[in-house]
Design goal:
Elements: H1 4-7, E1 13-19, H2 24-38, E2 46-52, E3 64-66, H3 67-75, H4 78-94, E4 105-107, H5 110-121, H6 125-137, H7 146-153, H8 160-168, H9 173-185, E5 193-196, E6 200-203, H10 208-221
Helix pairs in contact: 2-10, 3-4, 5-6, 5-8, 7-8
Amino acid sequence: MSTNSESNPEAKITIDIWSDVVCPFCYLGDTILDSALSKFEHADAVEIRYHSFQLMPEIEPGEAVNLVEHLSKKYGGPEAVEQMNSQIVARGNQYGIDYRFDKAITVNTLKAHRLLHFAAEKGVQHSAVMALFRAYFTEGKNVADTDTLVDLLQPLGLDANEIREVADGDRYAELVQADIAAAREIGIQGVPFFVFQEKYGISGAQPEEMFSQALETVWAELD
C-alpha cells in the first residue's frame, strides 16, 4: 500500500487559525501546535493561515492601558485576575513561554492584524505572529506603536518603509474585517480557534495530544 505522500506528492494539510496577538491562550495554543507539528512526520505538508480576531475591540486606537488594570475592571479586581493568569503562566512554562502579565501594554490590535496580512503576503506570517506574541507578553512592548513594529518585523525580511505604510494606513483593512466577519458567520466566539482542512475545529489551547490526533486524522483522509 502506498502512503499518501507517494500517491499524491502534493498532499497538503491546511490549518486556519483565528487569533489575536493580545490573547494569552492564542500564544499558548500556537506554541502547543508547534510542538505537535515538530513530532508530525508530514509537517512539511502543513500550511498555516492566520485570521484576524479582536479580543478587546473596545480599546480605542492610540490608547495604551496596563493589562492587569484593564482586566481587573472586567473580572472583579486584581486578585481574580492574578488567579486567572497564574494558571496560564504555569501551562506556558511547560512550553517555554515567559508570560509577564505585569508588563503587558494593552492596545487596539487592528494595526497588528493589517501587518499580519502583509506578512502573509511575504511568506513570514507565522514568524510575525510569534514575534508579536513575545513582544506583547514577555517584553512589554507596545504592539500598536509603528516604530516598535518596524523593529519587530524588519528582521523577518520585511521592508521598513512598507511596514510603516501598512501600519499607518488602511491597507489590508478589508481583509481584517473579512476575517472578523467570517468568524462571526461560523460561530467563533472566542480564540484561539483552529480549523483543520476546513473540516475539524479545535477551540482553545487544548492538550497537545488533541492537535496531534487532528493532524493524523486529516492526513489519513487525504487522497
